[in-house]
Amino acid sequence: MNFLQLCDRFPPVLVRLLARNGGRAMSDRQIGDAQRQTGARRIVVIQPEDVSWKSFTLEEFQTFTTACNLNFTNPQDLNRAECYLRKNNHRPTFSYLTKDPLWKSYYLPLIIGWRKSLKQIPPELPIPIRRLLEKLPK
């Protein structure tokens, strides 16, 4: 898979949802702190309509993905994400999100907003993400 295909497979919202540290969902504050440590000029906060990387600078892309522990140039990060998405026959539980206190107020609205911003579900997305988005209203 080439770099551009990775960008399509892991759009900004999905990178945000996959951001974990020690098995727990990372908060926006943790991600912001990690971005500051890299010397980011602007802290990237993901919105549901961020369905592609086109509006991000290369610096923003790099600092955000690294802060979320999903650096596209790190094979270990990519393997960890892909293994998680293949878990349980392509049915990961996302329990780190659903058990988080911010599930109903942040993560679920982010996912619903993401679905609403898509005209159609891209086939490049991982199977479990497509399944999840297909269940949500447009």
Secondary-structure blueprint of this entry?
Elements: H1 3-9, H2 12-18, E1 20-21, E2 24-25, H3 28-37, H4 58-67, H5 75-90, H6 95-98, H7 103-117, H8 127-134
Antiparallel strand pairs: 1-2
Largest sheet: 2 strands, antiparallel
User: What is the percentage of strand-forming residues?
Assistant: under 5%
Fraction of residues in helix: 55-70%
Return the domain count.
1
Shape descriptor: globular
What does the radius of gyration come to? 14 Å
What attributes does this structure have?
single chain; 138 residues; mainly alpha; two-stranded antiparallel sheet; 8 helices; 2 strands; 56% helix
Short description:
This protein has 138 residues and is an all-alpha fold. It contains eight helices and two strands. It has one domain.
Task: Describe the protein in words.
The chain has 138 residues and is mainly α. It has one domain (3-134). Helix content is 56%, strand content 3%. It contains 8 helices and 2 strands, in the order H-H-E-E-H-H-H-H-H-H. It has helices at residues 3-9, 12-18, 28-37, 58-67, 75-90, 95-98, 103-117, 127-134, and strands at residues 20-21, 24-25. The chain has a two-stranded antiparallel sheet. Helix 3 crosses helix 4 (58-67). The mean pLDDT is 93.
